[in-house]
Amino acid sequence: MAAMTYDRREQDLGNILLLEHVNVRVPDQQAATLFYIAGLGLTRDPYLMVSVDNMWANAGQTQFHLPTGKPNVLQGHVELIVPDLDALTRRLAAVKPALAGTAFAYEVRDKHVAVTCPWGNQFRCVGPGPEWGDITLGIGRVEVPVARGAAASIVAFYQQALRATASVTHDDQGAAARVSVGYRQELVFRETDAVIPPYDGHHVAIYIANFSGPHDWLVQRNLVTEESNPYQYRFQVIVDPETGQQRSEIEHEVRCATHPMYMRPLVNRNAAQRQATYVRGRDAFVPGVL
User: Fold this and answer.
1) How far apart are CA 40 and CA 46, in angstroms?
2) Is the pLDDT reported for residue 1 higher than 80?
3) How far apart, in whole angstroms, are the C-alpha atoms of residue 179 and residue 158?
4) Which of 46, 193, 214, 241 is most buried as measured by Cβ atoms within 10 A of its Cβ?
5) How far, in Å, CA of 255 to CA of 171, rounded?
6) What is this structure's pTM?
7) What is the DSSP-derived secondary structure letter of residue 11?
8) Can you tell me the distance from the alpha carbon of 51 to that of 267, in angstroms, rounded to the nearest whole number?
9) What are the residues whose beta carbons fall under 8 Å from the beta carbon of 52, sequence distance 6 or more?
10) Longest pairwise C-alpha distance within the chain
């Protein structure tokens, strides 16, 4: 019997293990609940940040962190995998009247639903599929616009600084730096000629396996912006490793795999469950089961 052969590189993640959360401030927790929980169908974390000044919204093994304050607007968009696009549009239609007068909007497009939050953040909501493996709910990508010619420098930065798997790709929209930040997760830095809005302080959180090596690299270049605690540090500016020229800006909350919250089990509800059509035993979200 012939031995099976596999391309083992297909399972390589690189040093970045998980893109855990995207953090944006929101000025109104009630409107945030309408949008993220009732509209998108996510689940408020029942254990942490349960007061009125912050909310953590669970999406599979990922989260949105939503502290109260002047709103942040990502320069690009978040690609969010949801179990059922038709159910999503019904929920969005239901919250639309309550969010009138805000920037909230949605549009059904080819194979995705384009959604704008009440403060202008853009979401590209997609259904499960081969691209996402067995993920049926979660943050798949965060896409950021960058200037023409920046993609190669950004790839070099992530390869050298964070020891991540990254490459430059080309499609009908042009060049993009694609960085693996977990199983079927990416940070995408897409080159554009458009004016890029100024960075306003939002951040992403990642977990990495080799924690000290990237820290040393960043410290040597004076790029660490916060020494948070033994398990976490932050940096904000992405530079060309050879010239030091800034190529993009988005704060990274960098956590180690020994962080107490790494892969913390997140509670996710079945957003299809309704009082009028209640099914016993279906309260919890189960991937692949609607």
Assistant:
1) 17
2) no
3) 7
4) 214
5) 32
6) 0.95
7) G
8) 17
9) 29, 68
10) 67
Q: Which CATH number fits domain 13-198: 3.40.50.720, 3.90.1300.10, 3.10.180.10, 3.30.2130.30?
A: 3.10.180.10
Position 176, amino acid: A
- What gap in Å lies between CA 136 and CA 249, rounded to an integer? 30
Whether the predicted pLDDT of 2 surpasses 70 = no
CA-nearest of 253, 132, 238, 130 to 177 is 238
- List the structure tokens of 288: 């692949």
- 12: tokens are 């390589």
The 8-class DSSP code of residue 110 comes to T
CA 86 to centroid of chain Cα atoms: 22
Stated as kind and residue range, the H or E segment containing 236 is: strand 232-239
Residue 254 φ/ψ, nearest 5 degrees: -100, 120
**Distance between CA 263 and CA 31 in Å, rounded?**
28
- List residues bridging with 238 in a β-sheet: 248
Question: Which uninterrupted H or E stretch holds 87?
Answer: helix 85-95
Q: For residues 15 and 86, what is the distance between their CA atoms, to the nearest angstrom?
A: 36
Structure-block tokens of residue 129: 């599929």
Contacts of 127 (CB under 8 A, 6+ apart): 81, 82, 83, 84, 85, 111, 112
